[in-house]
Amino acid sequence: MAEQDFVRQLNDDHGFTQTRGWSETFHIDFLLVGLLMILCCAGLLILYSASGKDMGVVIRQSLYMLVGFVGMGVIAQLSPRMLMRFSPWMYAGGVVLLLAVLFMGIQSKGAQRWIQLPFIRFQPSEIIKLIMPIVVAAYLANRPLPPSFRDIAVTLTIIGVPVILIAKQPDLGTSLLIGSSGAFVLLLAGLRKRLIFSAIMLAIPAVFVFWQFLMRDYQKQRVLTFLNPESDPWGAGWNIIQSKIAIGSGGLYGKGWLQGTQSHLDFLPESHTDFIIAVLAEEMGLVGCLMLLAIYALIIGRGFFITLKAQTLFGRLLAGSITLTFFVYIFVNIGMVSGLLPVVGVPLPFVSRGGTSLVTLMAGFGMLMSVHTHKTFHHRMR
Amino acid sequence: MPANTLKDHKAEQRIVGTRVWLSLFFMVVLVFVLIARLFYLQVLRYDEMSTQSEENRVLLQTIPPVRGLIYDTHGKLLAMNRSSRSLTIVRERAGDLDQLIENISTLVPVTDNERRRFDQRLRRRRPYEPIPLKFNLNDEQIATIAVNQFRLPGVEIDADLVRYYPEGCIFSHSVGYVGRINDRELRTLDPALYSGTHVTGKIGLEKYYESILLGKPGYQEVETNARGRVLRVLNQVPSEPGKDLELYLDTELQKVAIEALDGRRGAIVAMDPKTGGVLAMVSNPSFDPNLFVTGIDYETFNGLNKNIERPLYNRATLGEYPPASTIKPVVGLALLANGIVDKNTRIYDQGWFQLPGSEHRFRNWKRRGDGWVNLPKAIFRSNDTFFYNQAGKLGIDRMHDFLSQFGLGRRTGIDIGEERPGLLPSREWKRGVYGQPWYPGETVIAIIGQGYNLATPLQLAEFTTILANRGKHVQPRLVKEDMPDIQSPDWGHDVDVSDEDWDLIIDSMEDVIKNPRGTAHWRIGRDLKYRIAGKTGTAQVVSIPQGEEYDAEQLKEFERDHSLFVAFAPIEDPQIAISVIVENDKGAANVAKTIMDHYLLPRLNPSLTNGLSVDEALKAKVRN
């Protein structure tokens, strides 16, 4: 009781909240939940069209969304301190799972990404997605900022191990996302500009090594095709050409919901997974795309607000990384579908079909809420 | 944590804060890049992209025309289109191809050859196109595939119209055949007309009348999905089927003619002198044109092509043989028309002829000679010496000019592409080819149809027709109706010779058969039911060295003489003119007689056809 009073006083001192509101009680950020719900509804509308009016797909997706919201709420209840404390164990567990995938995973479509348990099959890389920003943030939050060379080296190792393991599966999109979520923590932690510059210089030989030793032929083919899609118009270039046509033919206002011919006549492959933005662009035009981007922008804005308002270094690093990673999802996906970036398998958050990434994303937002609503954490530690 | 105690929280929060604002700035920049990209595609390139989208959606499909049919003179089908079902595989939907073909082969046999050809096609086609594996499935095979369709992903049964020649090898050389368009043809054929058509006429009528038989393709605008599957037809222009051809060829007569050859190599051309219509055209041995339609395999083709009997070769229009004595009636007319001989001119034949100042003896075929010989006897006895004697007086120039009026030495212009001109030698020709002058001795052998002379069986039939018509030229042709798009050359001019001279020559030709001393009398001249005018001929394949006895037994089969015979009948109203060549064997006259009997006897005796005309009777027979 006394402790609670103490907490309230401290809160008052910081002027964040006058009283302990609904948000703190349930550890839920209602603004974020509202924005995500709007996004989910928009996503379901596009998915309905992209799947060829398949109600089954829409219902399954909304069930995943339901699971995602519940998961988000549950994760929001975990305090950042707990996440921080258990992060080394979570990380170790995640790496073990990735190794397990490499040696005894299930193969499907040329990739080995899944682990089969008696009743469920899952992708450990999805779990790493959540663990990575936590473990890097936890590591750096305990060190003086800006990080020393030694800290940077340790951090890069922490990031590198799972990234390489996932790239080996092979799953270029996911390893990219995971790598960047870790790197963002490092960037936010005040990595010196000189180091960023030298990292870029280092990246050039790294790209070479990556290309030469780690990338599979089909991945190389994707990059080559991206550089010149017309070189293989019936094969790997097909997706890029068709999605550009879909986007471009949408024009300013689009062909109307459910009226897109590119997707409905099957010209656009993967129209309801990674390439779903092309369906929106074709049917709703530039206006529709801008509206979707606006919703994303609001969510990202809220994420940064939470980042800036977070009371602990760990909270700031974690929230910032989650927000930035969310942005990377959007940028890479739209960039690749519109032909700006090579095709890597990155879904469009909350719109692309698929439960796993949805639930993972929601869990990430759960952590964001946890950072935002467990405001006493920093002071309790004292 | 020792490090913790040293931490400057305010400073650290500041660092992170700066970085957040910095990344926000970069994010805004990147978002503008995205928006710019979308603006570029959706606004600046909108026109281009929406056109492409429309092109994606609407596909112009060709409706291939139905190829025209070919009928014989009585309406019997010689070339038709048969519905053929083929088994095709869409690679995109097939999954493991090897496994799939393995599964298929447990249901219907798949030969190594079919598999090899499938693999060849596989490399050229798009993944969503159906690629044929097996053609000509029968009903049972179709049913087997249909029942097992569920475990054969990507397997489809396609229906196609395939050319079929129901008479097989009977008409392969005249009707010809169609085959798959090859690379060379692809460059010359009009792609608009051949879109949707995989075959084109290769030889014979199928090639000559290609533009008539082909028809015009139609088009339909269809809405398709990305796999090219048609979802909806938007607009349709139907195709125009090709025109049918009705021929003068008579299947029954053709079969009788082939039978009369009794398996020997040879050629036969029978014509109706009134129309020039070709009633029968035989080149034996022959081949099955159906082998070529869906693509002949290399071994089979090589077998046909390398065969020593040359079944692929159309002897009737491409075979150039020395016309030998068969041109004696024409030469006789030349002598009469040029005033060199009259009916009373006679020479004494002791069996040979010598040019003045030369030791060389030109021998008569009958070495002991025929005694006193005039022109009619020279024709019915086929006496060589008589003609040798006239050679110098006629001369090569006048001989060439007169004989060319009968179509020798140039293409007849028949409606088959594959035709050779034969050779009617002349002074100019020899200078052009050999750079040498014409020697008098060459006229001596040319006048009996040997030497440089070459003629196709079709040309022999053509000049026989002109004889039958007493000078009136008719163009040999296979198709009854004139086709406006096809211009067949017509060089023919009527030959102007007096009635008296015609009578003399035709009477002499009748004596070839009727006169007991005529060269064909003992073969076909007894028990005649109608009047035949004819002429025998024997073409040397190897020249017999001077002074040696000819012995067929000693010569290898392919070096034996060819037997020739030309004839028309009945003399008073010629209804059929015929030329027969039997390679390396005797008996061309018998072959001709068999054919003429078959053709003429029902026509001359209406009681055989229940009072119907022959045409009506045969048409009725075809219908039953």
From TrEMBL, chain A:
EC number: 2.4.99.28
InterPro entries: FtsW/RodA, RodA/MrdB
Subcellular location: Cell inner membrane; Membrane
Job description of the protein: Peptidoglycan polymerase that is essential for cell wall elongation.
Transmembrane domains' residue ranges: 30-50, 62-80, 86-106, 127-145, 172-189, 196-214, 275-301, 313-334, 354-372
HAMAP family: PGT_RodA (MF_02079)
Membrane topology (UniProt): Multi-pass membrane protein
Keyword Transmembrane helix included in the entry's annotation: yes
Protein source organism: Endozoicomonas gorgoniicola
Recorded catalytic activity of this chain's protein: [GlcNAc-(1->4)-Mur2Ac(oyl-L-Ala-gamma-D-Glu-L-Lys-D-Ala-D-Ala)](n)-di-trans,octa-cis-undecaprenyl diphosphate + beta-D-GlcNAc-(1->4)-Mur2Ac(oyl-L-Ala-gamma-D-Glu-L-Lys-D-Ala-D-Ala)-di-trans,octa-cis-undecaprenyl diphosphate = [GlcNAc-(1->4)-Mur2Ac(oyl-L-Ala-gamma-D-Glu-L-Lys-D-Ala-D-Ala)](n+1)-di-trans,octa-cis-undecaprenyl diphosphate + di-trans,octa-cis-undecaprenyl diphosphate + H(+)
Keyword Plastid recorded: no
Keywords: Cell inner membrane, Cell membrane, Cell shape, Cell wall biogenesis/degradation, Glycosyltransferase, Membrane, Peptidoglycan synthesis, Transferase, Transmembrane, Transmembrane helix
Xref: Pfam families: FTSW_RODA_SPOVE (PF01098)
Stated name of the protein: Peptidoglycan glycosyltransferase MrdB
Family: Belongs to the SEDS family. MrdB/RodA subfamily.
Biological or metabolic pathway of the protein: Cell wall biogenesis; peptidoglycan biosynthesis
TrEMBL record, chain B:
Enzyme class, broadest EC rank: hydrolase
Domain Penicillin-binding protein dimerisation, chain residue ranges per copy: 63-233
Topology versus the membrane: Single-pass membrane protein
Name of the gene this protein is made from: mrdA
Reaction equations catalysed: Preferential cleavage: (Ac)2-L-Lys-D-Ala-|-D-Ala. Also transpeptidation of peptidyl-alanyl moieties that are N-acyl substituents of D-alanine
Record-given protein name: Peptidoglycan D,D-transpeptidase MrdA
Residues that span the membrane, as ranges: 20-40
Role: Catalyzes cross-linking of the peptidoglycan cell wall.
Record-annotated active site: 325 (acyl-ester intermediate)
GO molecular function, one term: serine-type D-Ala-D-Ala carboxypeptidase activity
Protein's organism: Endozoicomonas gorgoniicola
Pathway membership: Cell wall biogenesis; peptidoglycan biosynthesis
